[in-house]
Amino acid sequence: METGGHAFVAVDVHCLGSGGARAAAVVTADDRFSEVVAERTEVLAEVLPYRPGDFYLRELPPIRAVLSGLSGLSLLVVDGYVDLDSGGRPGLGAHAHAEFDVPVIGVAKSAFPTATHAVPVLRGTSVRPLFVTAAGMPRDEAVDLVRHMAGQHRLPDAIRRADTLARTSPPAAELTNTSTADQARIAAEPCALWDRAAVHKHTA
């Protein structure tokens, strides 16, 4: 589907030994997450410690920071769960949905004991499923989207890229492993979808 200027974004957060966290956003122009148009990282010096069942308290502030100033956000994919049980107990994705008012898909790498409603999705040749939840869109539509996201591996390329950026934050010259043409476009307009003030807050 052509986006008409809409932004489809995969985000991830990595907590640092210093007590802070680095968030990464990979922005694409299509709902298969195949055409990368921008990448960004942002570091918060301090985040709350991990609390079981309250994952969002630690991860939502860095996500808020890395998406600050982004225009046209239409769909957000987070690493984790939208809701934590069939009764709708909110997880990271539900809080992100409330925060940004866009459809959110949660893609979790491991099963959560109470999230029996999450749909297991197999990709590529992997026998280990991803666990998909969603808010603001039908769950079966979210499952289909994750199943067909760009990439041949268990994790879609955009999600893998966000994970890599959040963990390592490589220099700007290494910020993409897409085609040469895409690299040139991102280098020329790395933050075209963010306003100028937000661009200045970019942390490489």
**Uncertain residue segments:** 171-192, 195-204
What's the average pLDDT? Answer: 84
* Sheet with the most strands: spatial strand order: 3-2-1-4-5-7-6
Using only CA atoms, what is the Rg? Answer: 16 Å
Strand content: 15-25%
Per DSSP, the total helix count is 6
Share of helical residues: 25-40%
H and E order: EEEHEHEEEHHHH
What is the structural class?
alpha/beta
- The tally of strands reads 7
Question: Main β-sheet: number of strands, strand sense, barrel status?
Answer: 7 strands, mixed
Task: Give me a quick take on this structure.
The chain has helices at residues 55-67, 92-100, 139-147, 157-168, 180-188, 196-199; strands at 7-15, 21-28, 36-44, 73-79, 104-108, 119-121, 130-135.
How is this structure best described in words?
The protein is of the alpha/beta class. It contains six helices and seven strands. Helices cover about 25% and strands about 25% of the residues. The protein has a seven-stranded mixed sheet with strand order 3-2-1-4-5-7-6, sandwiched between helices. Strand 1 and strand 2 form a beta hairpin. The longest helix is centred in the N-terminal third of the chain and has 13 residues. The C terminus is likely disordered.
Q: Mind sketching the topology for me?
A:
Layout: E1 7-15, E2 21-28, E3 36-44, H1 55-67, E4 73-79, H2 92-100, E5 104-108, E6 119-121, E7 130-135, H3 139-147, H4 157-168, H5 180-188, H6 196-199
Give the key terms:
6 helices; 7-stranded mixed β-sheet; 204 residues; disordered C terminus; alpha/beta; 23% strand
